[in-house]
C-alpha cells in the first residue's frame, strides 16, 4: 500500500493534519502507445477534495500530453512515459494553484464558480475568497466541468487523509509565519464538534435504562445473536447476487476472523476482506459494522473508519452500514443505543454516510435487519442527530438567502 505525505510537502511537521496518499504511477505499453497510468488518482483527489479529473487534466496541460479518463473504471492516464517524481512535482503545483488558500495556504478550500465565470477558492479556515489563475488551461476545463455541488455541508478537515485523529490540541502547526490557520480548526468545525459532543446528553432517551446484562448467560446470548446474524446475512438482506447462506460463506468467515483477531489493524482487516473477494460487496460492510465494534464503538470507529471510506461506494453500501449499526446497538450492545447520534456523526464527518441517506433511514422503520421494536428504538435514538441536520440545513439556507 502507498504511504502518506503532507498535502503541503514543504511542511515537514509530522503532525501536520492534512495528509494525502503518495501519488503512484505505472508505465504501460510500448513505442507510440506508451502511457502513464495513475492507479490511485481517485484516492489522492479525494484527500484534496477535488474531482480526480482536475489533477489529471492539469498534468496533461503541463506536460503537453493527451489524457484519457475513465471514471467508471477508475482509470486515469497521461500519454507518454512520465516518472513518479515529475508527476508529484506537478501535483504540488496543482495543489498550490487550485487547492491551497491564497491567503493562509490552508488546503481546506472549496472551488466556487461566480456568475461572471471566475473560479474562487473558498477557504473554510480563514474565510478568505481568493481567485485562481484564470489564464491556466485547467481553469477553462473547470468552468466547463464545474465541481459537483455538495449535498451536505462542509464539516471541516475535508482535505485530511482517512487516518485516526490525534489527541485534542494537536493541530500540527507547521511553524511557518502566516500558516497558523493551516493547523487549526475553523469556527464551523469547532461548532460542529461541540454540538456533536452534546448530542443526546439531556434527552429523555439518555434517562432511560439502556444498561446491558453482563452475566455470562447474557453475553453468550449476544454473541450467538451476532453469529447468527452474520451467518444469515444473505437471507436477511433479501435477493442479492450472493446466495451463500451457510457458515462457510465469505461473510461468515469474515465475521469469525474479526472475532478471533480483535486487535487487528485496519490494513489487516481490509486485506482479509480482499482475500475473501468481497471488498465491493455491501454485505461485507454490514458484517464489519457488526463485528469490528464493541460497546466502546464511538472510540473505536476512528481506528477503522478508513476501511468504510474505501468500501462504501453507493447508497446500497450506506444502507448496509446502517443495518450493521442497527444490529450492533439493537442486538449485540443495547447500551450503545443512546450513543447512536455520536456513531452517526463519526461516519458522517468521515464522508462515509450521506445526509439524505441518514434522514431517509431515520424516518422509515424497517424489519430488514432487526425486529420492528428494536428498529424503532434505534431510530428514536437518532432523533437528536436528525434534528441537528435539519437545523443546520436551515442555517445554510438562511446564509444563502443573505448572500
From TrEMBL:
It comes from the Eukaryota. This is Uncharacterized protein.
